């Protein structure tokens, strides 16, 4: 079981204010909002912030550079999709950013489970082919970060002759590699490459099962004791339990209203395994494991991190500790009111988690 001081919290920053209950407002790249969100997370004691990737969204590397420029300590979790630039180039970009931020960079590898979205960037590979490409990509990225001499690589998707990076990460042996994906192909790549395997907010039984699968995959590479686990939730907090559940119902109603206003019908069956797992949980009921709320995931087709933990800050902190006991070392938490919830998490939820374990509050540090 991880020690409490080894448990880290990751927030979420975006270039524009918006969520399932808020239509996007402001410019597509809203520097004032991005700065306010990043600084709120740093002030609130988060360890890192996720900068997401999507085929139609602003560039995650550029956003991460801006976030780093307006903060002092908080780490970066930069979502990055392999296959659209040379792995040697990506390795140098990330190592350079790690140097410029004095060791604050981290990368979240998202191979992608939605063929339609991948096609927007011109990628026509199948899912299994994409994960095979990702594995080669990470072989080369890590070699660029760690090799003291030029190296060759001869794979199906990539060939490198005398590859070398003069810039190495501050973090040794390299900056942390977060990895997402729940298919069998994804689990295999995670076992080989992931430092932190990232799940969406599943039931305790599902998390236990997934951790066992990933550890088994890591064992094949002698890495079982090196891999850690991250879990993502949308905490819904209030001063009382009844008020928190009432707020959860209100968020569901507002989600439905915004979807209707956008002309969205019933959510389609998702193409990726992670979403299907959330919907499998939702099929068991709206409230699971006391605090897990699945109705919003069901309403939206589990498009992304969409399950919630509901209760007072102390009650949600207790639920997080239950997942910690399963081996989770990182929690990615973001709200439906993005900036306001981030402030509340830093003021109430993270301190409640630390108090529950008898650990003092601490300043942000790289996860």
Can you tell me the CATH class? Answer: Alpha Beta
Instruction: Write down how many β-strands occur, each being a DSSP E stretch of 2 or more residues.
Output: 16
Largest sheet: 8 strands, parallel, barrel
What level of helicity do the residues show? 40-55%
Side-by-side strand order of the widest sheet? 1-4-5-6-9-10-11-16
Q: List the uncertain runs.
A: 363-367
Strand content: 15-25%
Mean pLDDT: 94
- Calculate Rg over CA atoms: 20 Å
- Large-scale geometry: globular
- The string of secondary-structure elements, in order, is EEEHEHEHEHHEEEHEHEEHHEEHEHEH
Going by helix content, strand content and strand pairing, the class is: alpha/beta
Determine the N-to-C terminus distance.
17 Å
CATH third-level topology: TIM Barrel
- Looking at the overall shape, the CATH architecture is Alpha-Beta Barrel
GO molecular function: alkanesulfonate monooxygenase activity
Protein name: LLM class flavin-dependent oxidoreductase
Pfam family, one: Bac_luciferase
Keywords: Flavoprotein, FMN, Monooxygenase, Oxidoreductase
What does it look like?
Keywords: Flavoprotein, FMN, Monooxygenase, Oxidoreductase. This is LLM class flavin-dependent oxidoreductase. Residues 9-329 form the Luciferase-like domain. One of its GO terms (molecular function) is alkanesulfonate monooxygenase activity. By secondary structure, this protein is of the alpha/beta class. The protein has a single domain (8-235, 306-357), classed as Luciferase-like domain (TIM Barrel). 43% of the residues lie in helices and 18% in strands. It contains twelve helices and 16 strands. Strands 1-4-5-6-9-10-11-16 form an eight-stranded parallel beta barrel, surrounded by seven helices. A four-stranded mixed beta sheet has the order 12-15-14-13, with helices on both faces. The chain starts with 7 loop residues before the first strand and ends in an 11-residue tail after the last helix. Mean pLDDT is 94; it is low at 363-367.
